[in-house]
């Protein structure tokens, strides 16, 4: 793809798919996404969430690259291509699907780690698992079976935002 076309695709993803919002206002929307991911983790993987709480491991410590780079920083291209296709078809919420699938498939390993071990796992071991195209395909299949809708994310918004949604006149939603 020529540079000009690639830049146009980037622009459309940033503006029309909402990725630009993650970078604005002191990363306010990004922090909202972390909050939502932690609530989804608490709801869908309570044992892992509890372990992370015990370790004081917060979503921003492992998921910031997932949201800001759409998994391109550490994961193999075969997996990134699948994620990009899903993003273009389904929207930015696909990141939650992939994140939850990664956490579900890694749950047993992560439950055995301490704080430093968990960070190393996310940085090194997790991306290595998906070098094989078949592993990436299975992960994407699992991610597609996880349903995280916009309405659900609205109810998993930070309490301040949720209160503003129900009482205030003009509020920018974080999804």
UniProtKB/TrEMBL annotation:
Q: Which Gene Ontology terms cover its molecular function?
A: GTPase activator activity; small GTPase binding
Q: Which Gene3D superfamilies match?
A: Ypt/Rab-GAP domain of gyp1p, domain 3 (1.10.472.80)
Q: Which InterPro entries match?
A: Rab-GAP-TBC_dom, Rab-GAP_TBC_sf, Rab_GAP_TBC_domain
Which residue ranges does the record assign to the Rab-GAP TBC domain? 1-91
By what name is this protein known?
Rab-GAP TBC domain-containing protein
Species of origin reads: Hucho hucho (huchen)
């Amino acid at each position: 793809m020529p540079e000009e076309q690639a830049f146009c695709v980037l622009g459309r993803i940033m503006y029309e798919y909402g990725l630009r919002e993650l970078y604005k206002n002191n990363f306010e929307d990004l922090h909202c996404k972390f909050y939502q991911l932690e609530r989804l983790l608490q709801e869908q993987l309570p044992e892992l969430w509890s372990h992370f709480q015990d370790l004081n491991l917060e979503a921003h410590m492992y998921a910031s690259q997932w949201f800001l780079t759409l998994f391109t920083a550490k994961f193999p291209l075969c997996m990134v291509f699948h994620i990009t296709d899903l993003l273009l078809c389904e929207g930015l919420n696909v990141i939650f699907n992939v994140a939850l699938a990664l956490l579900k498939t890694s749950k047993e390993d992560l439950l055995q780690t301490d704080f430093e071990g968990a960070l190393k796992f996310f940085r090194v071991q997790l991306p290595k698992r998906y070098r094989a195209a078949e592993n990436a395909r299975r992960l994407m299949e699992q991610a597609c079976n996880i349903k995280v809708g916009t309405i659900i994310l609205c109810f998993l918004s930070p309490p301040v935002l949720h209160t503003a949604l129900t009482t205030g006149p003009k509020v920018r939603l974080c999804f």
